[in-house]
Design goal:
5-stranded mixed sheet, 3-stranded antiparallel sheet
Length: 160
């Protein structure tokens, strides 16, 4: 898979190969914001997860996953990642490392292996809903499957 764009089909193939149970939701309107996603699926903002790409000062990408009611605390994320500081990735960096556009990034199944840190609050839920590879698609997945598939660390990276 050398193409730059990853699609929903790539994501589905990855999940099937990993034998992970997920449910996809497709909508007419975009689901790029937590509020839009929560409204369209009919769940609380906490059940929606955000998968946000950061770049450490060493140049390596870090995917931070937090519940929809929280923001990523960059200091905590840097500490958890073992770097001095982090910054949010640009649109082109998001595309380059994950294969997906901003607003569509799924929590798993990226173009490259990315160090992933999941906020501990995400693990409070048996299922969470995150980006589904396209801006009008969401996927429901178990946080434990996200952890397993990304070999993520569970840390406290959300803001208070």
């Amino acid at each position: 898979m050398s193409h730059d764009n990853f699609s929903l089909n790539d994501l589905k193939r990855f999940l099937e190969a990993a034998n992970v149970e997920v449910r996809f939701f497709r909508f007419e309107e975009h689901t790029m914001t937590v509020d839009a996603a929560a409204r369209q699926v009919g769940v609380s903002r906490e059940r929606i997860i955000k998968s946000i790409l950061f770049i450490g000062n060493d140049g390596a990408p870090i995917l931070a996953i937090v519940t929809g009611d929280k923001r990523v605390d960059e200091r905590k994320l840097a500490r958890a990642s073992g770097v001095e500081k982090v910054r949010r990735a640009t649109r082109s960096e998001v595309k380059y490392f994950t294969g997906y556009n901003v607003g569509a990034v799924p929590p798993v199944g990226h173009k490259m292996k990315i160090k992933t840190i999941i906020d501990k609050k995400v693990l409070n839920f048996d299922k969470v809903i995150g980006g589904g590879g396209e801006i009008n698609t969401l996927m429901e997945i178990s946080p434990l499957d996200i952890k397993k598939l990304t070999e993520a660390e569970i840390r406290d990276i959300g803001d208070e």
